[in-house]
Amino acid sequence: MDDCIVRAIAANGSIRAFSAISTNTVEKARKTHNTSPVVSAALGRMITAAAIMGAMLKAENALITLQITGDGPLKGVLVTSDSHSNVKGYAVNTNVDIPLRADGKLDVGGAIGNGSLRVIKDVGLKEPYSGSIELITGEIADDLTYYFAKSEQTPSSVGLGVLVDTNLSIKHSGGFIIQLMPDAPEEIINQLEKKLLTIPYITQMLENSADAEEILKIILGDFNLEILEKTSIDYKCDCNRQRVEQAIISIGKNEISKIIQEDKKAEITCQFCGKVYDFNEEELKSLIIEDC
């Protein structure tokens, strides 16, 4: 099943909805970072959410970043997506091993601990929009539901799920975001609230081989669902040597001179894809000249 995001409306435009299948994308991230199962689940949920929220962006070159920081052993996760749902991300600690929850599921909330969720939207204006909340559960979907209500005043339901196979690969990954529009009639609001109480967990839908359209049909099939668009998702890092050079320049010539004096070289590793960029002494000196 190819990774994709489906965008739809329902109840004559009173509801907007997005669903995603992100299994291959999350598997790319797992392989890139060699994550343990609970970290794969946390990173996968964040990747799925960022891809969907990226699809919500209207500006062509817009970017969205989701960042969770916590006092648990995972420490934090950062994921970014463009408006075409090209995503990249990383976890601060990729090798977390903690007991399963009482229900036998991976304890993402325990791995993250207490902390905060920050959402940054860069839509090309002078200053990016930034909103943050304290984590409710650390399970990510609950926290994003709270974020939408508190920071964007948009009643939403968020479902995110990642199933890790016995060989540690990603068996299934996907999710949905359902949102009520400001003019939604009270009757529709009540019907949707009742419906959301009866739907299966997203992991159950994925285990039953539901694709992105079927996920929305399960949730909104009784609300005159209208599929509008289907787009792809991919794990794609856009790092390059020029960007790394600019990052080195940004630390200032004094720091670069210190590196030259102490090490004679620099090795920079991209946090998102693991690619290594090497700079010798002469190359570092040239960056000092560029900074002048």
**In order across it, which strands form the biggest sheet?**
7-6-3-4-5-11
Write the CATH fold name of the largest domain. Answer: Hsp33 domain
| Poorly predicted tracts of residues | none
- CATH architecture tag of the largest domain: 3-Layer(bab) Sandwich
How many helices? The count is 10
Radius of gyration: 21 Å
The helix-and-strand class reads alpha+beta
Summarize this structure as a short list of keywords or feature phrases.
292 residues, alpha+beta, Hsp33 domain, CBS domain Like, six-stranded mixed sheet, five-stranded antiparallel sheet, 10 helices, 29% strand, globular
Tell me about this structure:
The structure is a single chain. The chain has 292 residues and is α+β, with helices and mostly antiparallel strands. It is globular, with a radius of gyration of 21 Å. The protein folds into two domains: 4-235, 3-Layer(bab) Sandwich (Hsp33 domain), CATH 3.55.30; 241-291, CBS domain Like (Alpha-Beta Complex), CATH 3.90.1280.10. The chain contains ten helices and 13 strands. The strands form three sheets. A six-stranded mixed beta sheet has the order 7-6-3-4-5-11, covered by helices on one side. The model has no long low-confidence stretch (mean pLDDT 94).
